Amino acid sequence: MQATVFDDPVKAAQRIVDLVGKDLRLAAPLAIGKPNHLLNALYHMVEADKRLSLEIFSGLTLIRPRPKSDLERRFSGPIIAEAFKDYPELEHASALREGRLPANIRVHEFFLQAGAWLNNSPMQQEFISLGYASVARHLRKTRINVFAQLVAADRSGGTRLSLSSNPDITLDMQDYIASCRATGQPLVFAGELNANLPYMPGDAEIEQAAFDVLLDPPPPHFPLLAAPREPVPLDVFATALHVATLIPDGGTLQIGIGSFADALTHVLILRHTQNAEFRAMVASLGGQSASDAELGPFQTGLYACSEMLVDGFIALKRAGVLKRKVPVIDRSGKATGAEALIHAGFFFGHRDLYATLREMPRAELDEIRMTGISFPNTLFGQEASKRAQRVKARFVNSSMIATLLGAVSSDQLADGRVVSGVGGQHDFAVMAEELEDARSIIAIRATRTVAGRTTSNIVWTYANATLPRHLRDVVVSEYGVADLRGRNDRETISAMLAIADSSFQHGLRQEALRAGKLPRSWQPDEAMPSNVPARIEAALTPYRRRGLLPAFPFGSDFSEVEQRLLEPLERLRAAGPLTLARFALRGLLASREVSGEGAALKRLDLANPQDLKAWVMRGLVLGAMRS
Prior knowledge:
Elements: E1 4-6, H1 9-20, E2 23-27, H2 36-48, E3 53-58, H3 70-83, H4 91-97, E4 105-109, H5 121-126, H6 135-142, E5 146-153, E6 160-162, H7 174-182, E7 188-193, E8 205-207, E9 213-215, H8 234-244, E10 252-254, H9 259-273, H10 275-284, E11 303-309, H11 311-318, E12 326-329, E13 335-340, E14 342-347, H12 351-359, H13 362-365, E15 368-370, H14 374-377, H15 383-389, E16 393-398, E17 401-403, E18 408-409, H16 425-434, E19 439-443, E20 447-450, E21 453-456, E22 458-459, E23 474-477, E24 480-483, H17 489-497, H18 502-514, H19 533-545, H20 560-574, H21 577-588, H22 597-603, H23 612-626
């Protein structure tokens, strides 16, 4: 049976309803794999016909950020407008955010765009907490009857399509799809073609005949949303340097996305290409001096097995760090004769990643194997070959909060509101326990500062645990490494105190003493350096000035003027009322602008303020720039 091809999303949506019926239970991939035109057509059809119902299951729906203040709007507004230019926003997400979702449409997510839905009660109420590897099992139980995703056509003229960015859940649902068809249960597998999506070979390839409905909209196809590159502060580089000493040559690596992932990628490249400088940086932090610290260049190299293919893996490949290949085993368990450098379930990243994958020669592309999420995130299926390939695995993830007893919270606030989701963090922590020589590494910033108040991210207790303390392994902050595996509670507390900020160590120690978890005689290691931000700045600022630790190690999406504004705007975000008053007074009393300030004020439309509020904002910005 051949797929029915449409160029009109409304006709494609009507075909889906005709095949499935009035009760639509639809699963769509996370991030860039969503078929926006098709989903919007279905939304409008169900919105207009109350006899129909639509239930959507998905994750990481990318929505247009909303600036929280006038100053943020002045800076971020043009950047957001450019990022979302020509992108058809998802109607169900807009309706949900604006409180106008019809009663016959429900939306469930298992992973949220970080922080975007914190104050949206409908989303918080419909959120389903699932680890990544558990999603397919949940969809089976829910009796999903529509699978819909963005797909890529073979530019060489072949008849196959590629699941490209998102074979993650779709491949793990193929047995369910086959079972439904064999038993005559209504089910539609729908795809929307997009020429901007890279064609990924291997497991991600699928016969066009596997689809029931294909939407091939007239060009131009909408652009793929990209993750902006974030600046990397020195404290994040410090954490990355500590983590880099835990990555063994010849091992297996998993990393995520964001400034910490960029920092770790960069310092791993420095370790390989500028080893003396890398060792000097580690030494300047009072870092790993143990005999088993990993400090040398990569002779054998690394193999990547990660839920997410990110820009960092391409950079590591180009630098010669990622070069350990493993045999490719197909989904039936047979060796194909091919070799892989990277196995991943989905990709999302900077626009450069998409361009690189689109332009990559086929021989190189064959070494990047996009596959079902059960492959990178579990040992189920092909367990023997997975164990043989995943030697010395290091699964590196970030977190918001860690307790003195080693529990980690990465997805939810203490009041129950979901920030993001579990994702694959729990999957990798469990796998680290099950593999002989693997470790789960959690990176955390020791403190955070908002509105002038600095608090510790290392706490005594916390109401949520993404990773319970029985899975505690390695926690790393800018102040060092806490190796917690197999340690008793007293030893765990001591190790976590050693990587906490000095301002909070006494209070944390008192909490542990009150609970009877430390002996009264306990004293911190006298050789432990003072854990204060000034020490990190003093150690690493010389390397930043020499260009070895740039704020944007892989390039920036911001103009030079915007880059100059980033740090002052961050100072304003972190400042309390008294500091803000000082900034404003200093800026308002400034008699003349110094070099670069005029361009910065013009960028924020504050060069010629027209009212008192704008004058105050101008003063705040100038004061923060001069502090």
